[in-house]
Amino acid sequence: MPGFPFGASGLYRTDGTPNSGTFIEDFDSEDGIRFREQLTGLNQSGQAVYSATPIPIESPSPGVVANLYLGGDPAGPSLIVQQDQASPDGNGTFGPQGSAFHKFSLNDLGHVAFTNTLAGVTDGANSGLFLSDGTANGLSALAREGQALPGGGTLASLSFREPQINNAGQVLIQASTAINDNSEDNLETLFLRDGTADGFAPLFRVGQLNSLDQLITGLHGAKLNDDGQVAFLASTIDATNPQSTLAYFVFDPDHGLLELARIGDDLQGSPINNLFLLYNDFGFNEEGQLAFRFALEDGTEGIALATIIDTLLGDYNNNGIVDAADYTVWQDSFGSTTDLAADGNGNGMIDAADYTVWQDNFGSTNASTSTLSIIPEPASLTVLGVLGAGLIGRRRER
């Protein structure tokens, strides 16, 4: 492979140009150890977090110690945590034997959130969610199995989903809530940790009504961005959809819950009949854009891109408040069909109705009255011969 040394075993990164491959870590290291089971996350700073099992070079079979490392520093990798190490809260040790660190995420500050099972615990706290600041002594416990939750119930197993950490230090994880002693009654739940002492709180839970009066019947993956927005795929039922159907949602901490797309919605003239139920099989970025796969009843398959924007009705000069200056913008462009900055009702013309929009929202600011809406994106992407289509969606009010 161009840009990569032949005959060398290691972890590499590239900037996407020819001959740009560089070592992050050399797995045939000088101390006689090689690594297996590499599972890697990369951040914008060029750091990589990876799980590895050190194996003596003379031994053909894997060892039992599984460690988590942070690489990318010229001085060499940092050990984040290793098997048999004591938990930072003093309850058990990381393990049990043979248990690797497979579920972790890395932010651009070099902080790592991970889950793991533990051995030698008390009170049934067999799994936990942990945070490392990337240094040898910077490990802390964020949540443990069995802890009480706000609103009732206890936290059940944390070991089967990858956590996500953003650059604000928030951690998102899909786990389960125990409501009684019968594990079959445990309910899948999305939790968001905001960094405060009491900040590990449930966002959405199976069996619970969301703010759109829909009953959540399944949670199928979620993603977190730096603004604290959470995109997720869920199955729900409501008065208009009595059968459980898949839908994509975004939760915004300021504006609440927005439904983006649901099976049965019309997209480019044909109903959606599949949103591809694969865990976390979608993209969500810092601009609040959601990309997801779809299939239509007419046989079309592709990728839809939904963009969520903040709008403040009547704020015609976009300064964050509806005031007298916006009236001037409306007055100066009255009757125009080309200068549409003051087109408050979106009818393509500046008219008296736009004055009413300004009047009704006078004095409002982004902090109190902004809403979320969806704009379509151009159908300009082809992936493996499949046409990508822009999302034509609608906003559901809370």
TrEMBL record:
Family annotation (Pfam families): DUF7453
GO BP terms, alphabetized: polysaccharide catabolic process
Domain of life: Bacteria
Annotated signal peptide: none
Residue numbers spanned by region Disordered: 1-20
Annotated protein name in UniProt: PEP-CTERM protein-sorting domain-containing protein
Organism: Algisphaera agarilytica
